[in-house]
Amino acid sequence: MGKDGSLSVEKYRILIADDEPIERMVVSKAIRNHFGDQMEIWQAVNGREAIELCRDKQCQIALLDISMPGIDGLEAAEIIRRENQNCSIIFLTAYDEFDFAKRAIRVQALDYLLKPGSREELIAVLEEAVAGLRCERRSRPTAVQQEDERQELVKNQVLVNRTRDYIETHYMEDICLQDAAAALHYSDVYFCKFFKQNFEKNFIGYLSELRVEKAKELLRDLTINIKDVSRRVGYHDSGYFTKVFKRITGVTPSEYRSGLTVVPDSGR
Known about the structure:
Helix content is 59%, strand content 10%.
């Protein structure tokens, strides 16, 4: 269940491995149009990347082209299968060769689709893969499901901490959501959604509030002028800094500084 009491959508992690960018784009678009947010899509340009992404992201479905530079799709599939017995492997290839088909059978591939295939054929196979994953998920013992959920929570908290650390380290720079997403190796769309869910505000709102809090600390030092405070917290335009500060606190930086109570140092 979601936080609002609605049914949460089951999400599945899918890998598309193909050295042709147009092919990856076409397949990704077809998947997004049909499955929407139900699929988290990762892309690889060769077999080595496919293995690493499947391992790192624990992909549940792998769409593999056979002809790729370096490690080809069949070699990658053999390694993926050794490491993950439950991954649904689907080959998308222009090669209709018996040898390839035999090796596909050995890695227990779900299907072997020839390019250029139809969108309907691809979606039908993916629906079959998703149905299998749902059955596998329902059949797992409760303790295993609870452990999976615990690991997901831990993984989520790790990303929250990494995000917070990134902003704390770079707030004084000219950063935006895209910079943070790239630094943490996530897509802009996924990271935007993740940020709102976990910080309960958008990236700019969170960054602005943090900068204002840092500015308040600096304003206590009367030797730092307001323009320098502005620059130190990431605003090169002191006028814009003043507007942001007043919107969040209700007063300008000068008014905030004037309202501070200076406590004498009794040790002097």
